[in-house]
Design goal:
Blueprint (H helix, E strand, L loop, with lengths): L11 H12 L2 H11 L1 H5 L1 H4 L2 E7 L2 E6 L2 H9 L1 H12 L6 E4 L1
Parallel strand pairs: 2-3
Antiparallel strand pairs: 1-2
Helix pairs in contact: 2-6
């Protein structure tokens, strides 16, 4: 009779990481992280007037309180993309659309 194998135990985090990889959801979770970490990337002053709503195919949609801020943020768009990608992973955020 062969030796019995003890089941390999995993932490909950390891099991969830495995499931995320298996389902191919890593990219979606990294994208969602851009929405969650918007304030961290732009600071509280900008976050008061601009709220990240969603991200699809690397394009982050941000609701801006008025046209003056929309113009200012458009001028600083690349800086914000760089900060977000530094936080969550290079190439996740490809563009920001201010609405």
């Amino acid at each position: 009779m062969g030796a019995l194998r003890k089941p390999q135990s995993k932490t909950l985090g390891e099991a969830l990481d495995g499931l995320v990889r298996e389902l191919g959801l890593q990219g979606k979770l990294r994208e969602y992280d851009a929405v969650l970490r918007w304030e961290e990337a732009v600071g509280p002053h900008i976050a008061k007037v601009a709220t990240a709503n969603k991200i699809q195919h690397g394009v982050l949609t941000v609701q801006v309180s008025n046209s003056t801020w929309r113009y200012e943020l458009t001028m600083r768009k690349q800086e914000m993309i760089n900060k977000l990608n530094a936080l969550i992973g290079e190439g996740v955020v490809k563009d920001v659309r201010f609405v």
